[in-house]
């Protein structure tokens, strides 16, 4: 881990399922940690769940290959070969930003009380 990782994780309307993820700035080692920008690796994030049914943050970068259909497949993406420190940092940053010191309180509030959808004002005929 050579510097700060900058990226985004977009969640679906359920505020749990990953729609997409990207990392747009880093100083990771070429060919190792910079694997976080590979489209095929980022594509694995889509459909993964951040939280389990009890609300525990479960997302992680695996320590190996995630077998499709395994219990881990719901919450984990494949490891980054030769980049264990970067993989651990990605897991840590997700746990920070989607945990109790990050956006988790807001996400919980939005799940409990979704924003009110307002209707557009009627247009009067003149």
Chain-wise SSE layout:
Blueprint (H helix, E strand, L loop, with lengths): L5 E6 L6 E8 L13 H5 L16 E2 L14 E2 L6 H14 L6 H9 L14
Parallel strand pairs: 3-4
Antiparallel strand pairs: 1-2
Observed structural traits:
single chain, 126 residues, alpha+beta, two-stranded antiparallel ribbon, two-stranded parallel sheet
Report what the structure shows.
By secondary structure, this protein is α+β, with helices and mostly antiparallel strands. The chain has one domain. Helix content is 22%, strand content 14%. The protein has three helices and four strands. The chain has helices spanning 39-43, 84-97, 104-112; strands at 6-11, 18-25, 60-61, 76-77. Strand 1 (6-11) and strand 2 form a beta hairpin. It is elongated, with a radius of gyration of 18 Å. The model has no long low-confidence stretch (mean pLDDT 83).
Measured by DSSP, the beta-strand proportion falls in 5-15%
Q: Helix-strand pattern, N to C?
A: EEHEEHH
Characterize the main sheet. Answer: 2 strands, antiparallel
Flag low-confidence runs.
Answer: none
* Strand numbers in spatial order across the main sheet: 1-2
Helices, by number, come to 3
Distance between the first and last residues' Cα: 64 Å
Structural class based on helices, strands and sheet pairing: alpha+beta
- Rg, alpha carbons: 18 Å
The coarse overall form would be elongated
Number of discrete domains: 1
Summarize the structure.
The chain has 126 residues and is of the alpha+beta class. It has helices at residues 39-43, 84-97, 104-112, and strands at 6-11, 18-25, 60-61, 76-77. Helix content is 22%, strand content 14%.
């Amino acid at each position: 881990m050579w510097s700060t990782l900058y990226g985004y994780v977009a969640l679906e309307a359920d505020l749990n399922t990953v729609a997409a993820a990207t990392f747009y700035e880093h100083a990771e080692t070429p060919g190792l940690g910079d694997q976080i920008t590979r489209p095929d690796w980022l594509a694995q994030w889509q459909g993964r769940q951040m939280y389990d049914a009890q609300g525990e943050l479960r997302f992680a970068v695996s320590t190996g290959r995630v077998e499709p259909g395994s219990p881990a497949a719901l919450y984990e993406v494949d490891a980054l070969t030769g980049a264990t420190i970067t993989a651990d940092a990605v897991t840590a940053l997700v746990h920070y930003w989607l945990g109790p010191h990050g956006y988790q309180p807001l996400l919980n509030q939005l799940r409990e009380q979704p924003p009110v959808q307002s209707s557009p004002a009627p247009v009067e005929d003149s």
